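Notebook entry, structure prediction.
Reason for the run: the old model in the group folder had no record of what sequence produced it. Starting over properly, with the input documented here first.
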Amino acid sequence: MEFTGLSTDQAPPISAPFRFFLTAPLFGVLAGVFVLLSDSTILMSRYSIDSIVVTHAMTIGFLAFMMLGSITQMLPVLAGAKIPKVHFVATTSHALLTVGTLFMLIGLVRGNYFLEYVAFFCLGIGFMIILTALVIALKGVVNYTPTVRGIATSVFFAFFIVFMGLYLLLSHMIKDISIAHTIVANVHSVWAIFGFVGTLIIGVSFQVLPMFYVAPKFKSFCKQKVIWLISAGLLLWLFLSFFYEEYSIVAKIWIAIFFLAFATAVWLKLNRRRRPVSDVTVWYWRSASLFLILGTFLWIFDEYFKHEYIVMVAILIGGFILSIMIGMVYKIVPFLVWFHLNASGYMNIPNINEMINKNLARTQFLFFIAALIGFVFAFYMPAVLNYSAVSFIISMALLEYNIVSPVLIYRRVKKTKPDFDMSSLKQ
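New structure, fully documented this time:
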């Protein structure tokens, strides 16, 4: 690994990111249960309650938790930015977002408006607390590297999609489903996928691929311009969607080109890494590239099918995002355990590559891929849906176990006496 440019002295307490990482797979299991209890009509419309519930169990419960945990850790380390009151921010926002997400999902399923109102306030306050703290941290950054710009852009889009999401939830509660609701829902989903998640993944990959995989660095043009060009495409798509919808495909092609280029670049860089040792995280990055290519192509041509395959687009692009998130967490969690124990004076600790059972990680990957492929085939063979849901539940349960394992190592080692007393170095 290469740790050049890391501000490890600014790392937050390990509990800050871990509470998000440990919760995310549980929401993944819950999403799989919701799919299992629904029927094949969930694949036909993204506006059905079942589809909305499953989507937000994954987007808020899994993806947002994974991303917020990652940003909480990466922003101080990669940018040297100090998140104010990071323990309070992480603890409070995590609790509010957990309660808010659960209440929203249950409220939508049961049609319980009280739960939805509680969810509205919990989600709104929870997101504002952590996003505001991230903005304050970003204001103190001196050196805006390409990775920091990616994180900053992601946070910028996050504010908008949170406000749009709250508007959509409120309009659902008061039964004000207008044309504006549909337009905002479209912008909400596209900006969430390509603005919030996409720009973060691209920005972080500038640092993660060379660091964890000793892969060639991205070219200057890619690091300096691509985030801005994608942002410009998303703003153009917003303008065209509201005023010239018939030309919105121009902006879609614009956005898709850069994500297709990113997918290709990731594949090529993994081929050219200096230590070509394959592990499950490499499999995840390669799978993510394939899902992104298929998903973006289908997203463009879905215009000509009257959005008949928009749910399939969501599954494929969701496969890209999930693959990246899982692949990264398999690297980040063991590294954090090793780093925090090492910084506390513990020398006799497991190697990073030994903290997660490789066979279990491979098994989890196979169940995950089988589930996503099954979800796609369920469009044509509805009977496959339940088997895919079970496969997805198993993959998320295994992911939870694989994250818990390094945490247990951390807790076990912390109960012993350190090899070196580091307190004198902190004075």
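Summary: Confidence is low (pLDDT under 50) at residues 423-427.
The old model has been moved to the deprecated folder.
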